[in-house]
Amino acid sequence: MHRSSSVNDNKLKVLFEDEHLIAVEKPYGVLSQGNENTRSICDDVSEYLKENGEKAEVFVLHRLDKTTAGALVLAKTKSAAGKMSALIQSGGFSKVYTAVCEGELQDTQGVFEDLLYHDKGKNKTFTVKRERRGVKKAKLSYETLSTAEVGGTQAFKVRVKLFTGRTHQIRVQFASRKHPLIGDRKYGSNVSAKEIALWSSEISFIHPLTHEEIRITSEPKSEVFSMI
């Protein structure tokens, strides 16, 4: 079985599916994983699987913030979840995001490396100067795709590849260099926008069970991406 690019009656967009994994397009404002009192994308996927006569259990492999949308991969079995988790830990799971940031980068492509500390009480991440308890290394590469004026502010659209997966990593690494993401008030954006301009646009990996090369893509839907 292999299904892709389908939308069910509940508007769940399936980007990829086989008997082991399912990738969907998570909308803005929806949690990757919830609890008894909070609905999440897992609930939508479970309903979709049940409607198709499958076991309605899904396993979270990686998360997108509530304020981030785009491609998200889930496992349909414990075996697949274990093998995918091992693949992710070994660095075999490539994630690419598209973002729109304020300002103008001096270099159109490059690498950002920082030490980050996440304050759970404030739910905010900070760059720090030295390693200590709770501090983690963060690395990403970027490539500028286009530039334009957005909301009266010079801005650029950028393709970002993550080498680490830290909380709010892309948001804080750009904001610490005076380039907050459009609409990201938490990290200093001065531009009003309905959503933060951050989208999970591409995920690629070698399937640990079928050994196929998998590439899952999702085009940004937020209005701000069409303005640049």
Question: What does this protein look like?
Answer:
The longest helix is centred in the middle third of the chain and has 12 residues, at 78-89. The protein is built from four helices and twelve strands; from the N terminus they run βββαββαβββββαββα. The chain has 228 residues and is mainly β. The chain has helices at 41-51, 78-89, 169-175, 223-226, and strands at 6-7, 13-17, 21-26, 59-60, 69-75, 93-102, 109-119, 124-128, 135-150, 153-162, 198-206, 213-217. The mean pLDDT is 92. Strands 1, 2, 3, 4, 5, 6, 7, 8, 9, 10, 11 and 12 form a twelve-stranded mixed β-sheet that branches. The protein folds into two domains: 6-94 and 201-222, Pseudouridine synthase, CATH 3.30.2350; 96-198, Pseudouridine synthase (2-Layer Sandwich).
Q: What structural class results from the helix and strand content?
A: mainly beta
- Mean pLDDT over the full residue set: 92
- The CATH architecture of the largest domain can be given as 2-Layer Sandwich
Provide the domain count: 2
Radius of gyration: 18 Å
Counted beta strands: 12
The helical percent reads 10-25%
Given as residue ranges, the uncertain stretches (5+ residues, pLDDT < 50) are none
The CATH C-level name of the largest domain is Alpha Beta
First-residue to last-residue Cα separation: 38 Å
Can you tell me the CATH topology of the largest domain? Pseudouridine synthase
Q: Tell me, what's the shape?
A: globular
Helical run tally: 4
CATH homology group of the largest domain: Pseudouridine synthase
Strand content: 35-45%
Q: Tell me the series of helices and strands, N- to C-terminal.
A: EEEHEEHEEEEEHEEH
The description of the largest β-sheet is: 12 strands, mixed
